[in-house]
Design goal:
Shape: globular
Structural class: mainly alpha
Radius of gyration: 19 Å
Largest sheet: none
GO biological process, one term: CAAX-box protein maturation
Protein name: CAAX prenyl protease 2/Lysostaphin resistance protein A-like domain-containing protein
Number of helices: 10
Keywords: Membrane, Transmembrane, Transmembrane helix
GO molecular function, one term: endopeptidase activity
Helix content: over 70%
């Protein structure tokens, strides 16, 4: 047994007999789990939106109420999918790697954040060199034109809801579950591919070109590798969640404060 693949909570080493077909089937299963979370998020968002209108009346587009509904839906959706997966896979909440960060974890958090920023700069520079134009996120305009109150809510939600929610599902649930089939290195790659693909709806809206969407997904994949690698090393989902949320806070605020200027706002908040 290769002990390097055994995590602190009793994970298993990769199967030596897993065929490419088995790996592909496993990949598709978790890809469907990722897109299933989007479908559930949409349903929850619709229910909350209708309930809000019934109680408060019409709500302004991009207003505080809409942002609250969006982030609450994401949090509830990812938590519900993670819970359902654990129950159906015969696992319990001990599978979830949530621990108070150690000094080592803090070091990985700081280092991972720096690497993520450097990775972003490298990706933007490469795209400029190749003359590639990434697609814009469907919410870019609403962020640029948001009020200070809404932006404050967005920034807090990135740290407390978006980062933790997405890392719980895509790193702790999907990536860690893939360890049994393909081992840690390939699990990081496959989970990053899934994480990239589930962002297609967010970047294909508004008539974005196929090339622009593909360019953006490639960038998301590269930066997702950093988060996956950090989680694989620390086995504590708090670490990539803090990196993810902090990166988004910096990026969202930069997009808002800059008014979308500079031509890189489409990549400034990838997650």
């Amino acid at each position: 047994m290769d002990e390097s693949y055994v995590d602190r909570r009793g994970g298993s080493p990769p199967r030596d007999d897993a065929s490419p077909v088995d790996i592909f089937k496993t990949f598709v299963r978790f890809l469907l789990l990722g897109f299933g979370s989007l479908a559930l998020l949409f349903v929850i968002q619709l229910v909350l939106y209708v309930a809000t209108i019934a109680v408060l009346g019409p709500v302004p587009e991009g207003g505080l109420e809409v942002q609250l509904i969006s982030f609450l839906s994401l949090g509830l959706g990812t938590l519900a999918v993670a819970t359902a997966y654990l129950q159906n896979s015969g696992r319990d909440w001990s599978f979830i790697d949530v621990e108070l960060p150690s000094l080592r974890d803090v070091a990985w958090t700081l280092g991972g954040f720096v690497i993520l920023i450097l990775g972003f700069l490298a990706v933007v520079s490469l795209f400029d060199l190749l003359g590639l134009s990434p697609a814009e996120h469907s919410s870019t305009d609403s962020i640029i034109n948001a009020t200070p109150q809404v932006i404050l809510l967005v920034l807090v939600a990135q740290l407390l809801v978006v980062g933790p929610g997405e890392e719980l599902l895509y790193r702790n649930v999907i990536q860690k579950s893939l360890y049994d089939s393909v081992g840690k290195p390939r699990a990081v790659v496959l989970a990053s591919v899934i994480f990239s693909l589930v962002h297609i709806p967010a970047y294909s809206a508004g008539g974005a070109s196929l090339g622009g969407v593909a360019t953006t997904l490639a960038a998301i994949f590269v930066l997702s590798l950093v988060l996956g690698g950090v989680y694989a090393r620390t086995e504590n989902v708090v670490v990539p969640a803090v990196i993810h949320g902090s990166y988004n806070v910096l990026s969202f605020y930069s997009t808002y404060a800059g008014g979308g200027s500079g031509g890189t706002e489409a990549l400034a908040w990838l997650f």
